Amino acid sequence: MQTVMFDNFRLIRLTPDHIIKPFDCGDSDLNEFLLLYSQIFSKELFAVTYIIENDLKTVAFFSVLNSLSLFKNGTILSTLSKRTKTMIPD
Fold first, then answer.
1. What is the 8-class DSSP label of residue 21?
2. How far is 15 from 61, CA to CA, in rounded Å?
3. What is the pTM assigned to this prediction?
4. Which of 27, 33, 48 is CA-nearest to residue 86?
5. Which of 76, 45, 71, 48 lies closest to 61 in space, CA to CA?
6. Which of 23, 33, 44, 66 has the most CB atoms in a 10 Å sphere around its CB?
7. What residues contact residue 31 under an 8 Å CB cut-off, 6+ apart?
């Protein structure tokens, strides 16, 4: 795991086995992506997610997608949910 430290926060490239600390940005779709799907996307090589955390919580995250072809009209293609064997909500 590659980690960059600054003050009491760490920037970490998320891995499939990383335990994500509590996170709530006020947007349920973003919360759900981080907590339920970001590690699946990482494992399937669809995206790489980075989190900023301290000892108690996750304070921010961002993801870099490998391909824009995963999206059509702002939604994830159904083939993605089939490949990950997970239902991706609309």
1. P
2. 13
3. 0.69
4. 33
5. 48
6. 33
7. 23, 24, 25
Residue owning tokens 């760490």: 10
* Cα-based angle 40, 45, 29 (whole degrees, multiple of 5): 45
Q: What does the pLDDT look like over 25-80, one tens digit per residue?
A: 999 889 999 998 898 888 888 889 999 999 999 999 999 987 655 555 555 554 45
Phi, psi of 64 (to 5 degrees): -115, 115
Residue 62 corresponds to which tokens in the numbers above?
């961002």
* Residue 78: predicted pLDDT: 47
Neighbours of 10 (CB within 10 A): 15
**Per this entry, what is the length of the chain?**
90
Contact 57, 49 (CB under 8 A): no
Please name the residue that has the structure tokens 């509590």: 22
Position 87 pLDDT exceeds 50: no
